[in-house]
Design a protein that fits this description.
Blueprint (H helix, E strand, L loop, with lengths): L4 E5 L7 H9 L2 H4 L3 E5 L15 H19 L5 E4 L4 H6 L7 H8 L6 E6 L2 E5 L9 H4 L2 H18 L7 E4 L14 H13 L6 E5 L1 H9 L5 E4 L2 H12 L4 E5 L4 E5 L16 H21 L1
Parallel strand pairs: 1-2, 1-3, 3-10, 5-8, 6-7, 6-8
Antiparallel strand pairs: 4-5, 4-9, 9-10
Helix pairs in contact: 7-8
């Protein structure tokens, strides 16, 4: 039976990426799922020490991502799993790097994309990602919310076989702005986005206060939650599935998943890193590939 060709970038060499990749692929159950290509920097890294941020490690991590993009564009990979990098070390190497998601989207000319974080009973898609909390109200638009909802609905239908996805949308403010008395983002931005899309996504609801919506999702009332900012969605998810959470970038012209953790410099090189998150990311990449192949046939 044909297997997908999955590239795995090594991530920051000083982080736990190399360790969790090695541990994941030591499992016969994982190793047999695909033909794997580990994408690693081909040159010695000056000043390299596990657990210590290093500009050269940043350059190495970015090289791996760029190499993966080339392989994908040349049709040599079917999916990509990315190990964690450190944005600061990549930026210190002279590259304006916000995150894997944005970098891969720009490299492929993708205009509409989003992160879907999965863990335990939750699937969460943040409308805004790696920006300061104070900037969220300035950046938040009806269009951004609509893109996140549409991509989520399409993804759930295509790859999770959920014909009528139940999608809950978070409010931005406490108590959803208290009907405009506290703030008006819900009335002016979020509600119009929901109203506009409800014609096509029948099980779309919100805005719902963030202190309520994740409890409902945990109880199975939603197939996915749209959060307005990063920590609003990832806090509840990581509380429930810190070691098992993973990310899928939806909207890209190829399959990309990643573990939902960082470089973890504090434990790098100690042999104690848990590979469960990257294992789940690999399994999801394989699952999406299989579904895509069935749909093509």
């Amino acid at each position: 039976m044909k297997k997908p060709r999955i590239g795995i970038t090594l991530g920051d060499p000083a982080g736990i990426g190399p360790e969790v990749i090695e541990k994941a692929l030591q499992s016969p159950k994982i190793k047999c799922l695909a033909n794997f290509l580990i994408i690693k920097y081909p040159h010695p890294i000056k000043g390299f020490r596990p657990g210590v941020p290093n500009r050269e490690c940043g350059k190495a991590a970015l090289w791996c991502i760029d190499e993966a993009i080339k392989l994908i564009k040349n049709g040599k990979l079917d999916a990509l799993v990315t190990a964690p990098v450190n944005k600061a070390t990549i930026n210190s190497a002279g590259v304006d790097f916000v995150g894997h998601t944005e970098y891969l989207a720009e490299a492929t000319g993708t205009k509409e994309f989003a992160m879907m974080l999965c863990g335990g009973p939750l699937r969460v898609v943040p409308v805004t990602r790696h920006i300061a909390l104070r900037d969220v109200p300035k950046v938040l638009t009806q269009e951004l919310i609509e893109v996140s909802i549409r991509l989520t609905g399409r993804f759930l239908k295509t790859f999770f076989a959920i014909d009528f996805p139940r999608i809950g949308v978070c409010g931005l403010n406490p108590h959803c702005g208290e009907k405009g008395n506290l703030s008006k983002e819900e009335i002016e931005i979020i509600e119009p986005a929901i109203k506009r899309l409800k014609k096509n996504i029948r099980n779309l609801s919100g805005p719902v206060s963030a202190d309520v919506i994740f409890y409902k999702a945990y109880r199975g009332e939603y197939d996915a939650v749209i959060s307005m900012y990063h920590d609003q969605g990832l806090g509840p998810l990581k509380m429930l599935a810190f070691e098992k959470g993973f990310n899928v970038t939806i909207g890209l012209p190829f399959i990309r998943t990643s573990p939902d953790h960082g470089t973890a410099y504090d434990i790098a090189g100690k042999g104690t890193a848990n590979p469960t998150s990257i294992i789940e990311a690999i399994k999801m990449a394989v699952s999406i590939w299989k579904t895509s192949n069935r749909n093509v046939k």
